[in-house]
Design brief:
mainly alpha, 3 domains, 0% strand, Ubiquitin-activating_enz, ubiquitin-like modifier activating enzyme activity
Length: 157
């Protein structure tokens, strides 16, 4: 359960960060204040609102999740984007027709199984040396090694 609360707090913090800075967070910023530190502070503010007063933050788990979000914030994973697009389209039709009540809650889809073994620091430094192409947003999510593995597959769908 705490992992879900952490994810929700980090998502709220990313939304707030984007409103404040007009961009998504990036790792290894050389600003006066690191994006990860700013996002951490915003997330902790949201966590204090969402959790009971006696809740103790599991710092290892929270830091790991936060790092994952910072490194992949500018990425896009096409299958999840497609699923979300279908879901949002269905909700728009539901709202327009008025036949059913649209869902009024957050929806999270993840592919954590793909990224739990990735060393983001190594992958991000490798990605910076690759010229941007159409797979850049996918590389930010799952790393270059998995993108290369997918490219070598000989599958037709």
């Amino acid at each position: 359960m705490p992992g879900l609360v952490y994810i929700h707090a980090i998502m709220l913090a990313i939304s707030e960060f984007k409103q404040l800075n007009q961009r998504l967070p990036e790792p290894n910023q050389i600003n006066q204040e690191n994006d990860e530190t700013t996002l951490r502070n915003l997330s902790i503010n949201h966590l204090t609102e969402l959790t009971p007063k006696d809740h103790v933050i599991n710092d290892n788990h929270f830091s790991s999740l936060l790092k994952t979000f910072v490194y992949s914030a500018k990425g896009a994973f096409a299958p999840i984007c497609s699923a979300m697009g279908g879901f949002v389209g269905q909700q728009v039709l539901t709202s327009i027709t008025g036949k059913f009540t649209p869902i009024q809650q957050w929806l999270y889809l993840d592919a954590y199984e793909l990224i739990k073994e990735i060393s983001f620091e190594k992958e991000y430094s490798a990605i910076k040396s690759i010229s941007p192409d159409r797979y850049q947003s996918l590389r930010l999510c799952i790393g270059d090694s998995l993108v290369q593995c997918l490219a070598r597959q000989q599958l037709f769908m």
